[in-house]
């Protein structure tokens, strides 16, 4: 029996690859045989990932997902160079304003968070789907957040972007369901990554208190869920948001 969690012979794009969850996902994908293409806007961190995972020059690309033209170009260049894109993992994200009531947030700040977290996800999806349709196979995984399910006070742009992602994949999942393509999201609670490096101890305590397992999650644990959703093994689940919250959200 073949191992459907193996990525042997598959090309997997990982966006937001330079840190945290994206970086951990690269390690797991590589260990399961994938040819990984790592994309991020942080050049020094991307270079470190290239060295850590022994990636070739053509396997790392600078990309700002909030730039639609750049997304179109990156996907088309990867397709031309690799001949296929079996899976897209999108872990790029920013927190945006925190501890700010809605009416204190200027629109440019609000829009920036939407452009990175939500528009980027939409543009990536729009560009990989025709390639996956041609292959009659594809897996798309976007990293959402518990914030998209429950909402964090003081973080309206982030909540909106992550909830938007959850709604986005539901309908698109149904559109492409007959075409061999699945699109899912993963919604983590607080995970130990650089994104939380500046989170105060008080806020971390508050968040951990809401997690029945009583601890933060590790990037490697989220990577396991992502890799399942990005693999052939995820053959009968689409439009779904997997939970990675230590029991906080059970829906
Ligand atoms: N860490 C958590 O507690 C947590 C919880 C829930 C959801 N998430 C989500 O998980 C995803 C990964 O977060 P993380 O914790 O690994 O954070 P991280 O900051 O460690 O990694 C995010 C990566 O995205 C990249 N990125 C940011 N803006 C980008 C852009 N415009 N274009 C391309 N790349 C960009 C960053 O350079 C970074 O390498 C994010 O979408 C985040 O919202 C994280």
Describe the model.
- 45% of the residues lie in helices and 16% in strands.
- By secondary structure, it is of the alpha/beta class.
- The two termini are 32 Å apart.
- Helix 3 (68-82) runs parallel beside helix 4.
- It has a single domain (11-241), classed as 3-Layer(aba) Sandwich (Rossmann fold).
- The longest helix has 29 residues, at 107-135.
- The chain has eight helices and nine strands.
- Residues 16, 18-22, 40-42, 45, 63-66, 91-94, 116, 143, 145, 188, 190-191, 193-196 line the site of nicotinamide-adenine-dinucleotide.
The separation of the N and C termini measures: 32 Å
Low-confidence stretches: none
Strand order of the largest sheet: 3-2-1-4-5-6-9
Q: Determine and state the CATH class.
A: Alpha Beta
